[in-house]
Specification:
This protein is of the alpha/beta class and 332 residues long. It has one domain: UDP-N-acetylmuramoyl-L-alanine:D-glutamate ligase (3-Layer(aba) Sandwich), CATH 3.40.1190.20. Helix content is 41%, strand content 24%. α10 (271-284) packs antiparallel against α11 and α11 (289-303) runs antiparallel to α12 (313-331). The chain starts with a strand and ends with a helix. Bound molecules: adenosine-5'-triphosphate and magnesium ion. The site of adenosine-5'-triphosphate has 21 residues, from α10 and α11.
Length: 332
């Protein structure tokens, strides 16, 4: 089976259910917002949350995708940077429990984390992110041997803010003969790195995952299909995701609309990361373009049915069965 290497911000979600919004007020966090905090504030918030009781879920976009490809059975590797602390160890060991081969780089800063305050009857979420060690990953950390033997290299768009790192990584991945994919991550990432992303994708990237707003930010074209057609001029395969309305995929003259797979959604977190994993897994098996999109949709439909980014065992079982049938139909 073909193998995949991912690179991303190694972040752990720290989730706490709070009795009221006292802590939010104390740290000046508007309800429902996402704020970046410095180390000192990050440490103080974490200590306060610990007293209440927290749940740790290692994540980050590429880490989620790579965990999922590993569960599919692809040999999967991950490069990220952590601090010399418990949270970093937890990140590494959790990835490894899912079978991922980790290359964890180390920083003097503490490990990156996304602190999630869950409050109120509607379980509203407020975020305080401390990027820490993750932001310290740089081009000098990378070695060609990290890329050897991998068939695919997957990048999370959030890393594009460190342009030198990505430039070096794609050069090494190309030299190792990898097919390169990127998930554009967020429209503000695309807007603030547009020229860099254009150059990167034109020169190096084979497969691009974008949602509608990311595609619009990249192409400046309104309209999903029109945007996808413009995006596809810059890469071999373009994917534009439209949430519950499915996705569009295009490669050369081939173009398909892929409806979303039926689901009873409870939380959309991780849909995009998981879709990418399903698509790349199918791609690695040499499946036709349409089937790659369908397999992405099947597995994404499972993650929206659970809270958080980890699909439970029964849903994995269902997904694998549905995917096996689809693959068999396309091999027959
Ligand atoms: N409610 C849903 N029901 C079924 N499938 C869904 C639902 N929401 C999303 N999906 C599937 O997940 C795919 C990716 O979701 P989405 O379009 O939200 O990507 P995204 O914006 O990159 O997500 P993320 O917020 O995770 O980055 C969709 O193309 C679709 O196949
Ligand atoms: Mg996304």
């Amino acid at each position: 089976m073909k193998s995949i290497l991912g690179i991303g911000n190694a972040l752990t979600d720290i989730l706490a259910i709070l009795p009221d919004d006292t802590l939010l007020k104390e740290y000046h966090l508007p309800l429902g917002s996402m704020q970046h905090v410095d180390m000192e504030t990050g440490d103080r918030i974490w200590s306060a949350l610990k007293e209440i009781g927290v749940k740790y879920v290692p994540g980050g976009s590429a880490a989620n995708t790579i965990t999922c490809t590993s569960i599919f059975g692809m040999p999967s590797g991950y490069i990220g940077k952590i601090g010399d602390d418990e949270l970093g160890q937890l990140f590494k060991s959790t990835m490894e429990q899912f079978g991922v081969r980790t290359t964890m780089l180390h920083s003097d800063k503490s490990s990156g984390r996304c602190m999630v305050f869950i409050t109120g009857a509607n379980a509203e979420r407020t975020f305080a992110d401390y990027m820490g060690a993750a932001l310290e990953m740089g081009p000098d950390d990378l070695k060609p041997e990290y890329f050897k033997g991998y068939d695919y290299f997957h990048i999370e768009g959030y890393l594009v803010q460190n342009q030198d790192l990505i430039a070096k990584a794609v050069q090494m991945a190309k030299a190792a003969g990898c097919i390169i994919s990127i998930d554009m991550a967020s429209y503000n990432v695309v807007e603030s790195n547009n020229a860099f992303l254009h150059n990167l994708i034109d020169k190096y990237v084979d497969i691009v995952f974008a949602n509608e707003s990311e595609c619009r930010a990249f192409t400046k074209v309104q309209g999903t299909v029109e945007g996808m057609r413009e995006l596809a001029k810059h890469c071999e395969t373009a994917i534009v995701k439209v949430g519950k309305d499915g996705s569009w995929v295009k490669k050369g003259e081939e173009e398909y609309y892929i409806p979303a797979w039926p689901a009873e959604p409870v939380d959309g977190t991780g849909a995009g990361d998981t879709y990418a994993a399903g698509f790349l897994y199918a791609h690695s098996l040499g499946m036709p373009l349409k089937v790659c999109g369908e397999i992405g949709s099947i597995i994404a439909a499972k993650v929206v049915e659970v809270v958080g980014t980890k699909i439970d065992v029964p849903r994995w079982r269902d997904a694998k069965k549905e995917i096996k049938e689809l693959i068999a139909a396309n091999n027959g």
